[in-house]
Design goal:
Layout: E1 3-7, E2 10-13, E3 18-25, E4 34-39, E5 46-51, E6 58-60, E7 68-73, E8 78-83, E9 92-99, E10 111-114, E11 118-123
Parallel strand pairs: 2-11
Antiparallel strand pairs: 1-3, 3-8, 4-5, 4-9, 5-6, 7-8, 9-10, 9-11
């Protein structure tokens, strides 16, 4: 069974940066796409980014607008989300997830393992 542990969240001022990490234990990490989602209390969870199994392909939500970069290190079984130019609207709990597919996807139903989430707070 896959376990995912996010880290790197915190409090940052507008315009600041954070790098989220997603450490995976278990099998098939290098054969799976990795996704990032976020959720604000009272709202539905939304897609942020996804990187394919070997890091060659990435997709992002429109609101990312070039500010975030998804990456991965399969030798370390870890995914990353570099977030730059953060704004208060980025405040949310961020989750990483491992997909059942190798290619990039936005569909939550394609992800079967989820981390516990890490809080990102951007102050104005």
């Amino acid at each position: 069974q896959v376990q995912l542990v996010e880290s790197g969240g915190g409090l940052v001022q507008t315009g600041g940066s954070l790098r989220l990490s997603c450490a995976a234990s278990g099998r098939n990490f290098s054969a799976s796409a990795v996704g990032w989602f976020r959720q604000v209390p009272g709202k539905e969870r939304e897609f942020v980014a996804c990187i394919d199994y070997n890091g060659a392909g990435r997709i992002y939500a429109d609101f990312v607008n070039g500010r975030f970069i998804a990456s991965r290190d399969n030798a370390e079984n870890t995914g990353y989300l570099q977030m730059n130019s953060l704004i208060p609207e980025d405040t949310a709990i961020y989750y990483c997830a491992q997909a059942t597919v190798i290619w990039v996807t936005r569909r939550e139903t394609d992800f079967n393992s989820w981390g516990q989430g890490t809080q990102v707070t951007v102050s104005s």
